[in-house]
TrEMBL record:
Residue stretches in coiled coil: none
Cited PANTHER family: CYTOCHROME P450 YJIB-RELATED, P450, PUTATIVE (EUROFUNG)-RELATED
Gene3D superfamilies for this protein: Cytochrome P450
InterPro entries attached to this UniProt entry: Cyt_P450 (IPR001128), Cyt_P450_B (IPR002397), Cyt_P450_CS (IPR017972), Cyt_P450_sf (IPR036396)
The name this protein goes by in its record: Cytochrome P450
Keywords: Heme, Iron, Metal-binding, Monooxygenase, Oxidoreductase
Length: 405
């Protein structure tokens, strides 16, 4: 029988040093009771094998209605009924659903993100990347996130979906607010404004369809009952947020890892054919997603010698799983020649990231062209002074100051 462990609060210390904290959790067993920043209680899973098994375990449910009910019994959000409606309008998407809804929704977008489909976007991605690098070249020092890692994925996903350029900056603010763990972040206001914006955008796509994914999705909903009206807003929201909050961090965390490991940087510069493997290693070593999205136990589940009761929240630490010494040798070291396949940075099972092929190409183009353009690229801040954003879901820096050389 496992000893009773007091829940630990996932506060700023956890977000600033998730790998250090994960090591401590790991020593305490494969499932660790925690309290999330907004007061929700749950379990964090740290072992690779347990994480992989649970990501694909149908006893862990993502049903959004049940999650939101459970959430409200545990946390008093202190908001009004209208803002709760907005929040649920955004969360009722495939990442928060179980089969058969999940299967149906996922089928509708799968085709748009196959390696073949996204490879067609390659020339446009290279163009956007080069334009950003041209602008950066006018400076000695930049925040790589602001100048490069943010604008690239947001431009790509907005073009793919057909979001007009004028609203993109505003969209980024809403999206940042929604993934924030800061209890004072104006989440309800951002959710309400974003729902209004997406509704208008969908209306415009209905009136004047374009050559974009959102127009296709609107069209599908009119063709039959495959994508209902109330499913369009959450689908658009999921694709927009998932499509840029994460890839930013892959570029940012990957470049940081290289700049902190000059030997690995030199190896990659000497042999650019290592790039696709290096991207897998960035995903493994310091991936963009910290804890996978909320799941709850539809029945009791045993993890090692810990029994998790029915109706409890489970958070799977992708960062911890990917540094489990039982699965990867020297797990905390960057090795761009490593066979990093099998990492869990994109999740596993039915919710495995639909955008993985797009994210991989974006990161390869971005990091490859950045290194080719600036051969003196270097950190312009002490690594210990860099801060991580306040989020238990995302793992990304607030800023990444670099000298371009
Ligand atoms: C799901 C990571 C980029 C769209 C997921 C999940 C992870 C993840 C871990 C599963 C979450 C869970 O099971 O709780 C990442 C990473 C990315 C990335 C690390 C970048 C490096 C993208 C992009 C898109 C995207 C570019 C494009 C639209 C989605 C969608 C889902 C998802 C729609 C839900 C899939 C489902 O429920 O079946 N992603 N993602 N992601 N991702 Fe990504």
């Amino acid at each position: 029988m496992a000893a009773v462990v007091e829940p630990v609060r996932l506060d700023d210390a956890f977000m600033q040093d998730p790998h250090g904290m994960a090591e401590v959790f790991r020593q305490e067993g494969p499932a660790r009771p925690v309290v999330m920043p907004r007061g929700l209680r749950g379990w964090v899973i740290t072992g690779y094998h347990e994480a992989r098994a649970l990501l694909a375990d149908p006893r862990l449910s993502k049903n959004s209605e049940r999650i939101s009910e459970l959430f409200q019994t545990q946390v008093d959000p202190g908001d009004n009924a209208e803002s709760r409606t907005f929040a649920s309008a955004l969360t009722a998407h495939m990442l928060n659903s179980d089969p058969p809804e999940h299967t149906r929704l996922r089928k509708l977008v799968n085709k748009a993100f196959t390696p073949k489909s996204v490879d067609r976007l390659r020339p446009r991605m290279e163009q956007i990347t080069d334009a950003l690098l041209d602008e950066m070249a006018a400076h000695d020092e930049v925040d790589l996130l602001e100048s490069f890692a943010f604008p690239l994925p947001i431009t790509v996903i907005c073009e793919l979906l057909g979001v007009p350029e004028a609203q993109r900056a505003q969209f980024r603010d809403w999206s940042n607010t929604l993934v924030s763990a800061d209890p004072s972040a104006p989440i309800e206001k951002a959710a309400g404004e974003l729902v209004g914006y997406l509704r208008d955008l969908i209306e415009r796509k209905r009136a004047e369809p374009g050559q974009d994914l959102l127009s296709d999705l609107v069209h599908i909903s009119e063709d039959g009952d495959r994508l209902a009206e109330h499913e369009l807003v959450p689908m658009a929201f999921l694709l927009l947020v998932a499509g840029h909050e994460t890839t930013v961090n892959l570029i940012g965390n990957g470049v940081l890892a290289l700049l902190r490991n000059p030997g690995q940087l030199a190896a990659l510069r000497a042999d650019p054919s290592l790039l696709p493997g290096a991207v897998e290693e960035f995903l493994r070593l310091d991936g963009p997603v910290n804890l996978a999205t909320l799941r709850f136990t539809a029945e009791p589940v045993r993890v090692g010698d810990v029994e998790i009761g029915e109706g409890e929240f489970v958070l799977i630490s992708l960062l911890a799983a990917n540094r489990d010494g039982e699965r990867f040798d020297h797990p905390s070291s960057l090795d761009v020649t490593r066979q990093a396949g099998g990492h869990l940075a994109f999740g596993h099972g039915i919710h495995y990231c639909v955008g993985a092929p797009l994210a991989r190409i974006e990161a390869e183009i971005a990091i490859g062209r950045l290194l080719a353009r600036f051969d003196g690229l270097a950190l312009a801040a002490e690594p210990s002074r860099l801060r991580w954003r306040a989020s238990t879901l995302m793992h990304g820096l607030e800023t990444l100051p670099v000298r371009l050389g």
